[in-house]
Every structure is written in structure tokens, then in C-alpha cells.
Amino acid sequence: RRYVGWFNARHRRTGTLWEGRYRAGLIEGERHLLACMRYIEANPVRAGLCAEAAQWPWSSAAHHLGLGRQALITEHRLYWSMGNTPFEREHAYREFMGQGVSAQEQAQFTEAALRGRPVASEAFLKPLAAEHERVVAKRPRGRPRKEAPDV
Length: 151
Description:
Blueprint: H1 2-11, H2 29-46, H3 61-64, H4 77-80, H5 86-98, H6 103-115, H7 122-131, H8 133-136
């Protein structure tokens, strides 16, 4: 508890250190994984925390772009499919990052992160909806209306 007080005073904030819930979401890998990587690695740039994604110290962008190696990172096979050599993969990923995140992708991934919705095609979601309708289907905004009591 002492550390939390010290940290909050130092950073002019309030509340617990870990307030807010951890959010994980389902991503249809083959179709959306690389786009999700680009979205995540571009977040510090969008937030104005750095000029380039590779400059952010807690990002895997520098590793994927070949600007530094991080032993904790294991590349996904989709990253490996971008080229036969490390140079080809880094070059292809640099071009991919250069395309930027489209407004549609940004909205899709932001909603997925904030609402816990999967990022996937309709064909992928259809079988999931039967078992996990609450997660897959969008619910209307606001509180559900109370049913009128039978008189």
C-alpha cells in the first residue's frame, strides 16, 4: 500500500495501480493477426508518445523491423511467411507498417479491445454465436427495459 501511495503522488494520479480490467479478445489469426500487430505497434505513435513505432521501448516493432533483437519475442508463423530471410521479413514488415492503420481497422480493433468483441469474419463468428452469443452479438446500448408487471 505504501508503494501505491508513493507512485500515485509521483505521477499525480489516484486509485489502485491495477484498476481496470485486463482485456483479451479473440482474433481470427490468418486474416487479422498482422493487422492487429500493426495496430498495437502503432498505438504509441497515435497517442503522440513517440515519432516512430520502433522508438517505443515496450514495443516489439523494433524487433520486427530488425532494429534490435529481443529474446522474449517469438515471431508468429505469419511474420515468418513475409520472407525467406530475416532481411526480407524486416523489409516486408517495414512496408506493411508504412501502409498505416486504416480508419476501419482502427475502429474495429478499438471496439474489440474496449468491448471484448472478437475480430473475425461472419463465417468464423457464426458457429461461435450458438455457444457464446453474449460475446459475439452486439447488444443494444443502455440498460434493458423492465417488463411491465402482469395485472
